[in-house]
Design a protein that fits this description.
Keywords: Membrane, Signal, Transmembrane, Transmembrane helix. It is a single chain. By secondary structure, the protein is mainly alpha-helical. It is 69% helix and 0% strand. It contains 10 helices and no strands.
Length: 191
Amino acid sequence: MLFSQFILPVFGMFSIASFAVGTPVSPSVAIEARAADATDATSVLSLVQGLESTLTNMLNIQPETTNANSMLSQLESTFNGVTANVKTATLAQADVHATISVSINIIVTLIAIINKFSILDLVLGARVDVFLGAFVSALEVFSPGIGSLIGAGIPTVSLGIFVSLRLVISINILGLGGLLGGLLGIIGIIL
């Protein structure tokens, strides 16, 4: 009798919750709702493509000619400049998938630069986390969930740097918490 008094309200709550869960919105509807007309101002895609070419040029710099701290300062100023411009630009619906693809390439190139210049200091990693998180957050304005789509496209081989540098902001924005959450739990970081 006592058990049934407690169990029935729990079942009742779960049955109400199953009806109250909202229906998911397809990504194309969200993109259409947030995308701007292609005839406006500067295109986000062109800014992101410019960032990709700049990072490719930075990848060709030899570690003997510059140190990790100056390379990180160059990366930081480049990302911050593009992020500021992205906030005032527009993203056409047709460019969303291309922007995701180029953004994945940007993150993979950034990881290659971090590995090439041996940026393994947690203080420097925190700086990377801030400007990378700001960049992806600026893209989220145009299409909610774009960060998770970018995170899903990053090759698994490249994800180890997110854990070793403890890039917690970027992990959350890119939706990698489920994939990397166990590894972060081992080293004592809770998302």
